[in-house]
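[agent] plan:
  1. take the single chain provided in the ticket
  2. run structure prediction with default settings
  3. attach structure tokens to the ticket
  4. add a short note for the reviewer (M.T.)
[agent] executing step 1
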Amino acid sequence: MSELKVDKVSPRTGTYVSLNTVGSKNIIINGDMSIAQRSTSTASITGNGYHTIDRMFLGLTGAGTWTQSQDTTVPTGQGFAKSLKMDCTTANGSLSAGDNCILQQRIEGQNLQYLKKGTASAESLTVSFWVYATKTGTNICELYDTDNTRQISQAYTISSSNTWEKKTLTFAGDTTGAFNNDNGGSLTLLFWLAAGSNFTSGTLNTSWNSVTAANRAVGQVNHADSTSNNFYITGIQMEAGTTASDFEFLPYDMNLARCQRYYYRINPNGTSGSIGSAAYYISTAVFVSLNFPTSMRTFPSMEQVTGTNYYNINRDGANDEFNTFTLNTSNIDSADLYVNADVSGTAGHAGRCRFNSASGYVAFSAEL
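[agent] step 2 finished; step 3 output follows
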């Protein structure tokens, strides 16, 4: 993608800024697995969700129990510092028909318009990545068009146990079905780790077609069949064209900002740290206002952990300690939180909302 030069006035600070940035060729966000806002390790996973690495969703139905973590096992001499590790902790060697385990990243349609999908000029996509697994054999990588219910799959082989291998797969452009030009999820990149017969009993679909479930993951080995199995992945890159280029390493702050469009988490610094400015609406109720570091994809929902005196309002030389927030309002740039329990101040007085426990956190999610 070409160099972008933009001059503008910042809407937040009113200052004049000059930007000279290079557009990202990698459609995948956080493909080097360097950002893990939620956690660096989550155990006993038995269901769907975002668990550790930002932007990496795990689809999991019936295919064992897993620990997912951000790991330092990486291919030597390639510039990577982190990988995503899947460790099978309860095996399922006899999958039911609908069982599956799939690592995924979901992508906004407005970020894909240059691929010209649904036209005669549709671009091919090349996916490259590094993989390391205990179990060898055939694995499936899939592109799934959620706007038009179409998909295409490619098989790759893990040849050597517990050895980093680089894989490159090229998917033809699709001349049918344009991506929606909006902030909804249009395309999903999937890495299958396990698949029941609902997904493997047909013929692998290696060209774009309407979805037939049985053709999606034919030949996929079962990484969930032993508690000895581990699966690592890093360096995921998806780019327009038929050739894989070197992985595009972004500065940490740029990578973090791209992740924070979808998920933003405020953690304590030790047992303290600021959350946002506070004002007493009445003596027993407080509004807490905060700005997000970057505009989120859509109005976010709030996540928090609650506990006795996990938070406090620092005001008038004293602290009002409390246990939980309520999300009052949010938009893509900010949120107002509401506290109406355990606080007692003076209406109209201001303060600062802070952490009072190392266990507390507040997060905002606009995930696809």
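[agent] step 4 note for reviewer: The CA atoms of residues 104 and 190 lie 4 Å apart.
[agent] ticket updated
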